[in-house]
Amino acid sequence: MIIDCHGHYTTEPPQLTDYRKEQLEGVANDPNFVPSEANFHCTDEEMAERLEAAQLKLQAERGSDLTIFSPRAVGMGHHLGTHKTSEYWATICNNMVKRACDMYPDKFVPVCQLPQYPGVEPAKSVPELKRCVNEMGFIGLNLNPDPSGAMWTDPPITDKWWYPVYEAMVELDVPAMLHVSGSCNPNFHHTGSHYLCGDTTVFMQLLMSDLFKDFPTLKFIIPHGGGAVPYHWGRFRGLAQDMGRPLLDELLLNNVFFDTCVYHQAGIDCLLKVIPTKNILFASEMVGAVRGVDPETGYNFDDTKRYIDAADISDAEKAQIFSENAFNVFPRLKDAIAT
Predict the structure, then answer these.
(1) Could you give the count of Cα atoms lying within 13 Å of 159 in the half-sphere of its Cβ?
(2) How far, in Å, CA of 114 to CA of 143, rounded?
(3) Contact 195, 289 (CB under 8 A)
């Protein structure tokens, strides 16, 4: 089985995005605007038409079997609107992801977004996490380490500000992908720099902390191949040494994992040479950040299975990356597939 650990519902029906547009326009036009829960009609046929023309078609063409599926990442937009709009938006987005997964249970397994908002305690997101896991069978979450949208106004992810979420994650036995959302800072393009800067930033925050002493079973996935982390592994090792920190293998690699959303062979080869195989999960983020065809290869940039297939690693290592590691990182995955 080939499991893609990083897929987003980027083909959501227009009724969902229209609701979000109305939410945000209401806030922009009226400071006293009171948002309401989503109330729209969308048929299974409408959803199926869009999914089958994109994610499901590409699964079949590129040879993956199952996608761990979450709401659109940039669409989380935690810096937009108000905390109340974020609550309603997270609820409907998670409900729509669950609906898509129920329609294709052998193709998608759900992961949720949280109703985060800048300056609002992460503890207030715990009820939605528990709803998704306990009531709807979600197997993980996307946790935005910067709800402010590239302004980084909240405490680092290692601060006790975040501990209620980690306590819930441990209780529920679910991992988090540390995935930022949109950028409101013109210095940072959302997918080209904010995503990759966010990946690198959270790794350094973890390196400087003893978070995993407090939560030894906590698991994080850093997406997009870890941003700059594999390429600058020597820098991070050296910084850890200068700070008197433990070796990175001991400090982080029982709890931190990386995906393969790296869109060229040399980048994947670097990731595979630097990061232990046990810490790498196959992913594509297809129908996502980069959708075009690479003129040097004739294949889509985000056709990442091709890079793993071509890598100079053993079949056993490929099996780990394609599926075995996902079952380790997502303990609820096996039961989700069985049901």
Answers:
(1) 11
(2) 7
(3) yes
Two tokens at 253? 């690699």
Query: Residue 231 gets which letter from DSSP?
Result: T
**Residue 80: pLDDT band with limits 50, 70, 90:** very high
Mean pLDDT over the full length of the chain:
97
Q: Can you say whether the dihedral through the CA atoms of 152, 110, 5, 333 is positive or negative?
A: positive
- Write down the residue that tokens 């997270």 correspond to: 90
pLDDT band at 289 (very low <50, low <70, confident <90, very high): confident
Token pair recorded at residue 66: 């199952």
Q: Where are the alpha helices (DSSP H) in the chain?
A: 14-29, 44-52, 55-62, 73-76, 83-103, 126-130, 136, 163-172, 195-207, 211-214, 233-242, 248-251, 265-274, 305-310, 315-319, 325-329, 333-338
Percent of the chain exceeding pLDDT 70 equals: 100
The secondary structure of 110-147, three-state, reads: ECECCCCCCCCCHHHHHHHHHHHHHHHCCCCEEECCCC
Tokens of 176: 């988090």
Whose CA is closest to 329, among 1, 3, 83, 100?
3
Catalytic center residues: 285
* Angle between helix 44-52 and 55-62 (nearest 10): 40
Query: pLDDT of 178-195, one tens digit each?
Result: 999 999 999 999 999 999
Kindly indicate whether the domain formed by 3-338 is annotated with CATH number 3.20.20.140. Answer: yes
User: b/e per residue, 129-158, with b = 16+ CB within 10 A?
Assistant: bebbbeebbbbbbbbbbbbbbbebebebbb
Q: Are 147 and 118 in contact (CB under 8 A)?
A: yes
**Do the beta carbons of residue 112 and residue 144 sit within 8 Å?**
no
Label residue 20 exposed, middle or buried (CB < 10 Å: 0-12, 13-18, 19+).
buried
Q: Please, is 238 exposed, middle or buried when counting C-beta atoms within 10 Å of its C-beta (0-12, 13-18, 19+)?
A: exposed
Q: How far, in Å, CA of 196 to CA of 180, rounded?
A: 9
What is the SS3 assignment for 31? coil
Domain ranges of the chain: 3-338
